């Protein structure tokens, strides 16, 4: 259990640093690839919905990559006219961020 609490503290510290660093990121959620929340910049209910949607998005992208014989997903962006969702995967964890419209994609991925 101590390892889990350290991971949560690390995720919370990373979110705090990212919120200070990035002017483009509006919301950030750090979770497991299974959707288990580690930390978030929004309330638990919203964070859980974001994590669940991100898991579905990442799983779908991973399936497409596997079908094409490519390596597992590392990062993805889904853009709409109103904003974007960014997902960065690292082993069994992922960071999910939302932005407004027309973000600087490379910078957001770099920050994440």
Task: List strands and helices in order, with pairings.
Blueprint: H1 2-21, E1 25-32, E2 37-40, H2 44-67, E3 75-80, E4 83-90, E5 93-99, H3 105-111
Antiparallel strand pairs: 1-2, 1-5, 3-4, 4-5
Compact description:
This protein has a five-stranded antiparallel β-sheet, with helices on both faces. The model has no long low-confidence stretch (mean pLDDT 88).
Textual characterization of the structure:
This protein is α+β, with helices and mostly antiparallel strands and 112 residues long. It has helices at residues 2-21, 44-67, 105-111; strands at residues 25-32, 37-40, 75-80, 83-90, 93-99. Strands 2-1-5-4-3 form a 5-stranded antiparallel β-sheet, sandwiched between helices. Strand 1 and strand 2 form a beta hairpin. The longest helix is centred in the middle third of the chain and has 24 residues, at 44-67. The protein is globular. 26% of the residues are buried.
């Amino acid at each position: 259990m101590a390892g889990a609490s350290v991971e949560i503290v690390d995720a919370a510290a990373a979110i705090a640093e990212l919120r200070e660093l990035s002017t483009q990121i509006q919301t950030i959620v750090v979770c497991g690839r299974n959707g288990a929340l580690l930390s978030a910049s929004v309330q638990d209910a919203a964070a859980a919905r974001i994590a669940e949607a991100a898991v579905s998005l990442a799983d779908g992208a991973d399936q497409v990559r596997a079908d094409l014989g490519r390596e597992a997903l590392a990062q993805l962006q889904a853009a709409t006219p109103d904003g974007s969702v960014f997902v960065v995967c690292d082993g069994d964890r992922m960071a999910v961020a939302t932005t407004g419209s027309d973000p600087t994609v490379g910078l957001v991925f770099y920050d994440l």
